[in-house]
Fold this protein.
Amino acid sequence: MQTVFNLPETVSVDQLLEALPLAYAEPKKERVKRCYLDTFDGRLHGVDWLLYQEGDELVLERNGERDRFSFSGRIPLLAADLDQSPAARSLQKVIENRALLPVLETVCESCRWPLVDSEQKSHLSLEYQQLSTPQGSHCDRIVLRPMRGYEKSLRRCARALEKMGCAIAPSPLEEWLFAALPDWPKPPRLRSDQAAYSAFCAIAHYQLEVMVLNEPGVLTAEDVEFLHDFRVALRRTRSLIGQLKGVLSAEVTERFKADFSWLGAQTGRVRDLDVWQEQLHQQSAELPADLRAGLEPLLRFIQNDRKRLKRGLDKVIEGSVYGDLKNRWRTLLEEQAETTQGVLAGEPIGKLAARQLYKRIGRVLKDGSAITEASPDEELHTLRIDCKKVRYLLEFFGSLFRGRSMKRMIKQLKRLQSTLGDFQDISTQRHNLNDTLDRMKRQKRTTPECLMATGALLSHLQQEHDRLRAQFFKEFEKFSDPGLSGAVLKELKAQKEPR
Amino acid sequence: MKSIAVYNFKGGVGKTAASVNLAYEGARSGQKTLLWDLDPQGASSFYFRIKPKIKGDAKRLLKKTNKALDQIKATDYENLDLLPADLSYREMDIVLDEMKRSKKRFGPLFEALEEEGYETLLIDCPPGLTLVSENAMIASDLIASPIIPTPLSLRAYDQMTAHAKGLGIKKDRFAPFFSMVDRRKSLHREVVTSFIDAHKALNSVIPYLSSIERMGLSREPVAVSEPRSGAARAYRLLFEEIEQLL
Ligand SMILES: Nc1ncnc2c1ncn2[C@@H]1O[C@H](COP(=O)(O)OP(=O)(O)O)[C@@H](O)[C@H]1O
Ligand SMILES: [Mg+2]
């Protein structure tokens, strides 16, 4: 492992070389350009990994170890562009669906002297590095590169450098990279006694910022997560407006409810297809090889659908209707004019949130226990929406409730919700598949192989449907365990009706 | 890990010259390579400017493999490390003689080297028919044997392979090649052509070249000191041919 030192301003590299216990030989000069990559949400930064492109190689640095893989030449880079080496696989696990985008370019000009003994044999080398970015960051440093079997010489040289005032220095890269990553808005911190209106505006403003941050990526579509994150923020906004009725005036509530519902409809279809494509990809891998090719016409058809819908989506995002909606919403949230306030605007948010959560959890417990083996699928879908409302409330206001049973309930809720979500996906997929096949048939785009393959898919979906329905009952039993829900409801009751 | 012992019981035939240059070629082709300078005279170490160890302990080296790993030194060339000669190697024969299974003592060290990530091992063997050279021959995948093309040298080579046969080393593990060949001598020319055909010797031949002699002054592999020389080319071709056999 190399050792990196800073270069004190008062010392020159020549002086350092003279101070070493070994002689130095002819130096080698080099200039290396690197392009550091990370996902839009900084996942590699989050796990302390560095990934850069250098020439025709990608280099991954983890805990001082370096792995290299060949670089396809394409940036942004998706998991599918990486090879199957163990290092590339662990990288795939971290980035998942996210594209690797260029974050920072650096140029390193270096001059490297072999440090040699009386026989002119080198024991290690000293490198003077001038690191810079096109944005004007700059750092000079001294690197000692060890060679096997010459540990003693390394220690002697390191001591000589320290005597000259050099200190072991952290790399400036982490800092530069962090500064170059997109600035994510921070979720607001709420207080229990905060007025509901101000808490509402803080949460909604945060969601709006997340939407705006993701807009460019929705348009360029480097990966599908931009649209996903955009839509999550949008759904949270809608849920907030719907669930905190009375905080905004009735008129304002109605208007923005309608506006955001429109935006939801405009952006939903593309996202549906993204999800479906991903699912089809996985499912086709599980199909017998001879059926797999049959899916090709379907996949192409969906791809075309998506292209068409994406053009519509781009028009919406760049269009004036959405632009105007954003402006009006932002103005409302920032000006907080009295005329926009509703009857509950002054209520403490803690109390209001507790009341709403109490109501919503009660609803999940009631609706859920009413579901039996004989209930139609619709009842599970309704319960999913009930759960989602609770989930959003917990995301907004969870920090206001600290009880341990609350944490356990959140965990159970997540599991229940994920089962219900998967169950819903099955219905959506079945619907999508039947609808798309109808359209393909009308346009004479189906082939016998395609019908065979989709037949196999449908029967796979039926199996999943039955499995998930059975699983639901197990998950719901755990969630509705009276010991757990009783404690949570008690905590909420105490907060919504303070003595 | 592929292991190649460079061995001929005659001295002065070009074993060290071949070891140094073949090891360099291995490293240059991208394989992590180690050259073990097994000759107490330390000629290979000298070519890489690495000082031989004076106060070694041949016994501990054979018994404790991490002792050997600690002595490995990086050369000035990428991918190429050297296990330097040790004056105590002079006693290695006696040490081996006192050990059980005295002809098969290199196994554990080879395993440790493989674990260290070495892909190619070259051994510059000392001359003579000793337990040391027998161990090297038995443990290695291939025995690259330089021969000077004279009838007497060929006779010696036959004696050597016959002896090896007694140790259970089949003849196909030998890769003989001609060394210090003087193309102007008709004797050399005749011996080379007839022997290569008859004994499945390597086609690559190392001619007698002053650039190889000059290595003693430059203390660098010929491919470094004289990259475009015929000598550099000859060792590269020799390495490629040996690699085919592994
Ligand atoms: N092909 C060659 N052409 C000219 N000189 C050579 C050649 N090979 C070896 N020599 C010289 O011959 C001497 C002995 O060679 P060396 O490789 O040390 O033999 P060994 O290791 O078999 O004792 C050295 O001085 C070396 O420089
Ligand atoms: Mg020798």
Q: What stands out?
A: The pocket of adenosine-5'-diphosphate (ligand 1) is lined by residues B 11-17, 43, 179-180, 206, 208-209, 212-213, 215-216 (CB under 6 Å). Chain B has a mean pLDDT of 93. The beta strands of chain B are 2-6, 33-37, 73-74, 80-83, 120-124, 142-147, 174-181, 205-207. The longest strand of chain B covers residues 174-181.
